Every structure is written in structure tokens, then in C-alpha cells.
Predict the structure.
Amino acid sequence: MQTLEQQPELAREAQTETRRDKVLIVDDQQELLDIYREWLSNLPSRPEVHASSTGARAIALLDSEHFDLLVTDLRMPKMDGLQVLAIVRRKFPSLRLVVLTGVTDEAYRSRAYAMGVDLFCQKPTTKEEAQAFEACIESLLGREKEAGGFRGVQSKSLMDIIQLECLSQSSSVLRIVHQALNGKIWVQGGDVIDAEASSLAGEDAFKEIMSWKTGSFEILPADPHRPRTIHSSYHGLLLDSAQAMDESHTEFITKSDTEIERATGSPMAKLARFEGVEFVLEATTDGKAPRAWGVENPEVLLGWAKQTRERLKGIGNLLQAGPLGHVQGNGLQRHVSLSDHEKGILCIGFRRDMNAEQVLQTTKQVFTKWVS
């Protein structure tokens, strides 16, 4: 059994391997396919663009080779876009999905987002709309799939979600859930017009929601009658939020362990101060209750950690690989490492933009601090 210290060379080479992103466009109108192919082929990231005029052929292409992004129309003969999305989401769960359609019915939009699309766009009719669409596609390409936090079906940062909604000039209501907290952000025609979270409203509520690092979201139909209380541009709002998060992170990592524990009320918070760590959970053998930081459902995670440990121990015994030490895995939402020690179990979650070597080194640092 390989430990954290025995990373395969092939895995390391794969981390540094570079290639062009591959995009598949599906639309039953050939003239539009030609236009979209030209647009996307000229993006700064220079993706390799393929096209299909039917949903069935698109599925066949996805079966035969790897793609990074699928852009599909909704209304097509024989197999429509929603059918394509349903099949693709089941067969290729990590594929990024974009709907590009002339359908204006909000019910379609809600259904598409519920099926896990990353972006729902109206077909551009002006140069400005075309440029906004290109910017949205470029933002989805050439990056790690968002370093986990908020989930529809694909994970993405909350900042990305809002940016994509505004870039596509959408009108919607974002409902965000973070542990026991609920918040809403109203977007109208690509502008953030209002927000509410607990007893807060307006920009204060927006900043509070943006400070939430994990949770879930859903996109609800637009509320055109919502009064506008936020008049700053979404660019300014996101910039202010990013600056506030940077300042908060700096303050967090410069505090002593005692100050962090006193401020947060959690002795596990000191283990989360390492760069890239999203959550930490421990279950010790001394009979104390499990402790966690940044975990919404500790019991569920603990059950998974214990089950995984026992299965890996069983495999280790069959292979006569010796006692289990550390293992790590790369996931669609985030990376996870699991350490087994006489003290107990330590489970650590990492941002998905970290590579294997960074996860390895940070795990060692957190583990050393934990056992000391």
C-alpha cells in the first residue's frame, strides 16, 4: 500500500502535463454551430472546439474521447438539450456544462441548474452579449474545477457563481445555505440589487454571505419587483469581499494558537490555519467526542473516515503492506487526506486547486502539529 511518502512518478507527471481544453458544442442549426465554433476557437485559451448537430452524436463523441466542456442548445429534434444534460450528468459527472439557448422560460432555466449546469446563457443577439458569453466560457476553461465550497451539482466558489450570473446579464435569486444560516442575493439584469442574511440586509448582508466558505446554493426565478437597495457595481462588491476575506485570513494566520481557540471556541481551528486547509476532523481513542472545524456534518464525515480506514486496513493486510499510515485522494469537490495513528483518526480537506505535492507537505505539517 502506498503512503503519502510514496507518490507514483506518473501521478506527478500528470500534474504538470499541459494540454488544450476540449469543447463540444451541440446545436441543430449548422450556421450557429459555425459561428460558435469560430468564437470559441479564438478565445485566449485557444480551446480545441468540436461540434455536433444532434444530441445522439454528441453522446457518442463524449463516449469516444475526453472533453472539458459541453455547450448545448435546449430545443432540438429527437433528443432535446434537457435529455442530453440528464445523460451527460449521469455518465460524465465531472464534465462542465453550459446551456446556450433561445428559450426564455425561467422554468427551463431552473430545471437546467437543478441538473447541474455551470452556466445558463441566452443566445447572444448583440456584440456586447457575445462578448459576455465568450468571457463566461473563458472563465470556465483552463482552471481547476472550482475549489470546492458551494454546490449545485458542480462545485464552484460563491464568487464565481455571482460573477457568472452577472456576466451573463441574468436575472435570478440566489439562495445560499451555510450550516444553519440562510441568505439570498437578488440579481437583476446582471446587477446585484439586494441581499439578506439573518437580520442583515443590503451590502452588509452581501458581505456576510460572501464570508461563508462552504454550503449549498440554488438559483430561483427572478423577482422583478424586488426593491433595489444595493447600488454598487458587482465588480466593486466582489472586490471589497475579496479584500475583506484576505484581511480576515491574514489576521487568522498571524494569531497565536491560544488566540485562535479563544476566538473560535474550537481547539481544532489551529490546525486549519495552514494554507489550503478547508476542514479538519479528529476522532481520538481516549473516549472523547469527535471534534471538527469547517465541517457541516461531522457525523457523516466521521462514518466515512472510519469505514475507509477499515477497508484500507483490510487491503493492507491482504497485501501484507504493513500498518496504515497516511492516504490521500483527489476529488471533484476537494482533496482529502486520512491519517491513522495510535492517537486516533485525522481527516483533512483541502482546496481542489492544490496539487498532490502541496497536499502531501501540508498534511505532514498538520499531522505533526496534531500529534505533538
Q: What stands out?
A: The chain has three domains: 1-141, 144-252, 255-371.
